[in-house]
Design brief:
Blueprint: H1 3-17, H2 22-29, H3 33-41, H4 48-57, H5 62-71, H6 89-101, E1 107-110, E2 116-119, H7 121-131, H8 142-147, H9 159-177, H10 180-190, H11 195-200, E3 215-219, E4 222-231, H12 239-242, E5 245-251, H13 254-263
Antiparallel strand pairs: 1-2, 1-5, 3-4, 4-5
Helix pairs in contact: 1-5, 2-3, 4-5, 9-10
Length: 276
Amino acid sequence: MSAELAFASKLRWWRQHRGCSQLDLAGRAEISQRHLSFLELGRASPSREMVLRLAAALDLPFREQNALLVGAGFAPVWRETELGAPELSQISSALDFMLAQQEPFPAVAVDRRWTLLRGNAGASRLVEFLVGPVAPGAAVNLADALVAPDVLRPYLANWSEVVRYFIRSVEADAAADGTAATAALLDRLMGYDGVRSALREPASGDPSGGPVLPMHFRKGDVSLRLFTTIATLGTPRDITLQELRVESFFPMDAATERVLRAWAPEAGQRGLRAPA
């Protein structure tokens, strides 16, 4: 397939995926509808600047902007740097600071598809209490751990409610980034036993349930109720950083806080790390 046709196909797919008419997209990109039509038919070749203008109008993530550029015959403009690379040392230090500040409560850093990159000691203690220690260097995907039947589910008392919200967030990610990898993650999660039936359950509209939905873990006599926040970098210029998320866990009640603080040993315990 020629570069023009590869670009044309990708552009048309993204426009339709975003639910835009040619007129809508042309208006956003400040070009004529006729020119956009020629680009989608492969009858006109875009400049590098035009590709980036259309990518911005479509609100494409950096990874997909690169793919659109390659489809048009241009080199990618957005780099993807390993989190541990020297170029990202300041970001890496800031990330370690954020995770350490969350102690003794859990916090993790994950990528777009919930692969664990780093976790603090609080996260290690919670995981070890629930399912045992994670093998050093083991690859961990938190989406699978949450949704699969044999990891966290046995200890999550309100699993159906939590997974219903979580799957909807993965669906939104799949719609936003349009990648095969996120679509594959969604398909894998949907294939786990009990997920589809959980999604069919009506959402609770009871206002007495609290301002946020907690994750209610229960093992033996220990009950933990945690809510989470998710932070992203405000102005990333790298694919790795654009896809980075930091999820912090907070106690929902005083009893949970007491347990988490009681578990915390002296400072300096190492947290979870992704395999090198």
